[in-house]
Design a protein that fits this description.
Layout lengths: L3 E6 L3 E6 L2 E6 L2 H13 L7 E5 L2 E5 L4 E2 L11 H16 L10 H17 L5 H11 L9 E3 L8 E4 L2 E5 L6 E3 L1 H9 L6 H8 L5 H21 L10 H7 L2
Helix pairs in contact: 2-6, 3-4, 3-7, 4-7, 5-7, 7-8
InterPro entries: AGP_Transferase, Aminoglycoside_PTrfase, Kinase-like_dom_sf
Keywords: Transferase
GO molecular function: transferase activity
Amino acid sequence: MDEVEVVVAHNERATLRVGDVFLKVDADQARTDVEVAAMALAPVPTPEVLWRKPPVLALAALPGRPIARLGEPSTASPAAWAAAGAAVRRLHDAPLPPWPGQGLDAITARLDGECARLITNELLPADLVRRNREIAEAALRPWTPVFTHGDLQVAHVFVEGDQVTGVIDWSEAAPGDALFDLAILTLGHEEHLGDVLAGYGADADRDVIRAWWSLRSLVAVRWLIEHGFDPDQPGCEVDVLRARM
């Protein structure tokens, strides 16, 4: 009998692996609805949906391995990173999903609220928060919405050799800023930004991508701490913020 591996678990959701099957348990079925719908629409490889019985979604495992892990050097080739950029471009060129994305006002309000909590609760030094909030301002501008993954961290992009075999975890997919996806894919792996953009094949404002690095890290730190993760590990979110200083 296959062992049960806990991939991730916190009080919002959990993912288990049993052999070649991933079982995703989510208390919010709206997120699972988005995930299933987004995978059906996305023009990139995604896991096969084996069955769904709320609150559980069963997905087939993808071949290959994640392109990287946050806080660890990537062993994937530059060509694999370029292939990831090309896959993101295909997604961004696809028709928009038929549900709304998060608006600029909501993103700004969340950012300012998180910055205030980080300072008030002394989770991060005030000067670190304020400097990165200044940098994040460049991301807070109008954009033309595209089909975004919404949580395109490196652990969600699987590669085998120089090819992308699939992208997982689509529950945050929505119309959004193309540069946000590119920023999340390269968060903590700045050395591969050029490879990703070479595959993406379009002009991208690197200052805005850097601004999204700061914004994403600022809004993630408190949640990570409260859910048992350590954003202060080498190469992770706090290091990303320090690098902007």
